[in-house]
Amino acid sequence: MEGYIYNTPQGENVIKKIYDKQVKDLAVEYDDVFINTRFGKTHILRAGNADGKPILFFHDSGSNTAISLLKYRELLNDYMIYAVDTIGQPGKSEQRVLSTKNQEYGQWASDIICSLGFDQMICMGESFGGGILLKLMSVAPEKVSKGILFVPAGFVSTSKVNFIKKVSLRLYGITGAEKLLEKALAPFLGDNGLVDKRIIEMTKVNLEHVKNNIIFTRFNKIQKDEISGEKTSFLIFTGGKDEIFSGKKLAKRAKKMLPNAEVHLLKDSSHFIFANEDRKRYIRQRIDSFIKKQKTRSVLKSG
After folding, report:
1. What is the pLDDT at residue 83?
2. What pLDDT score does 192 carry?
């Protein structure tokens, strides 16, 4: 079935049932928003403070908006979050898969902002979602009032450990062996492997029911001349123990490519930077401070 991202219709139903359950379990008020883009229908979960500043969020590959709101739930108290189901990923958006090698993701993100009725928005992206935000910066930087990136794709290449992870994940998809899944997720988790069971649940069903090429979609390194909007302020978090994207290399290259950025290298953090409650509070404080600032200078900090 052309453009179909799931292995079977039955698998699609399994994933969507878990998705709906996880959104319900968040116990927050939300709206399902469906908008049209040039690439097809896109689903957004809108939740948070109606009087707060709007933030557009792009999730990681193989994830969805339910997991996004779980990770960033505390932001809902002060901001209105528009959590996007990435097109061509498991969720409720169109199943059309876009190319990471051209500007399609940037054009899609630009369409979202227009369809929501904004001239520009604060934009956030995690891992693969960070790569989407960088593509938006190459297409329509004027639509990003400020950018916030968590262990973003697009700055550095993935490591050899990531290749090992992919092999283990694929084997898990075939065999269903729990140890293979734990091994594959270890570079992500850190912090003694502590992670919410709902994230593990969604990871399992995605591996079992979504095609491999969808789960393992990645961005190549984006070049400086591909990104416009040097005046746009960015807040960037990298992990010192991130075995997917080297935190030090990412921080260094991010500063060069985005001169008006505040970069935080979280020394003890893995790729999954929200596995630690103290770190979550630190990140939240930095986000609040960054959003309130009028201007941001280029700086690298360790936390």
Report:
1. 96
2. 56
Q: Which residues contact 223 (CB under 8 A, 6 or more apart)?
A: none
CATH code of the domain in which 251 resides:
3.40.50.1820
| Residue 1 covered by a domain | no
Q: What's this model's pTM, rounded to 2 decimal places?
A: 0.89
Instruction: Report yes or no: 140 and 114 within 8 Å, Cβ to Cβ.
Output: no
For residue 35, tell me if it sits in a domain.
yes
- Counting as low any pLDDT under 70, the low residues of the chain are 1-2, 159-196, 294-303
Report the alpha-carbon distance of residue 262 to residue 296 in Å, rounded. 7
Q: Domain span at residue 256?
A: 9-302
* Per-residue confidence (pLDDT) for residue 272, from 0 to 100: 80
Total domains in the chain come to: 1
